[in-house]
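Backbone-to-sequence.
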């Protein structure tokens, strides 16, 4: 291999490595509506979170918000083992995040915070965690797209320094008293712009 080929190979390796790191850094926690089901005379909305492969890790204190969950039934919040749920009318998003749909102070926000002692690591293939749920007085035929915002931890395997925080945000379907024609669009719309950045 001549000098020119060696230089080209070196540049290719650097660029390839940079692209690989950038691709890994582009992963982000996302929140998805997993199901809608009747619950007595109300409707239960179930959610799941997806962790990006390699880069994402959840440690105690990491959290995510689901904004403007209309018709929330008091005491109906459910969370998987190791998580704590809470409800409030206003939740400032993590630093560096701007909510696309805002935060309506008349509608409840759902917050799920990890309180377990063992870190949750996405691994090489990513990870989905389900069993987050809340009940609404609003029928499952009426949904709209609102914000989620999250603050989680960068995995040690990604950058060699465990504890770096990443924030992300995007869209998620929630109950809302809207016409059925609009709700069908909201249900069919995926989590649109999921943004992730280091803080």
């Amino acid at each position: 291999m001549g000098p020119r080929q060696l230089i080209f190979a070196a540049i290719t390796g650097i660029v390839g490595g940079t692209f690989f790191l950038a691709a890994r850094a582009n992963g982000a926690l996302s929140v998805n509506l997993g199901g809608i089901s009747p619950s007595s005379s109300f409707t239960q909305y179930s959610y799941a979170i997806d962790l990006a492969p390699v880069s994402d890790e959840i440690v105690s204190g990491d959290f995510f918000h689901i904004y403007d969950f209309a018709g929330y039934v008091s005491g109906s919040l459910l969370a998987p083992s190791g998580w704590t749920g809470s409800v409030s009318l206003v939740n400032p998003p993590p630093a560096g995040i701007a909510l696309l749909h805002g935060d309506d102070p008349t509608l409840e926000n759902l917050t799920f915070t990890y309180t377990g002692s063992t870190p949750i690591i996405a691994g090489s293939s990513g990870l989905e965690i389900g069993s987050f749920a809340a009940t609404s007085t609003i029928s499952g035929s009426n949904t709209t797209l609102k914000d989620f915002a999250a603050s989680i931890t960068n995995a040690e395997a990604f950058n060699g320094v465990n504890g770096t925080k990443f924030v992300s945000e995007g869209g998620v379907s929630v109950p809302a008293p809207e016409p059925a024609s609009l709700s069908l669009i909201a249900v069919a719309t995926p989590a649109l712009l999921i943004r992730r950045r280091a803080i």
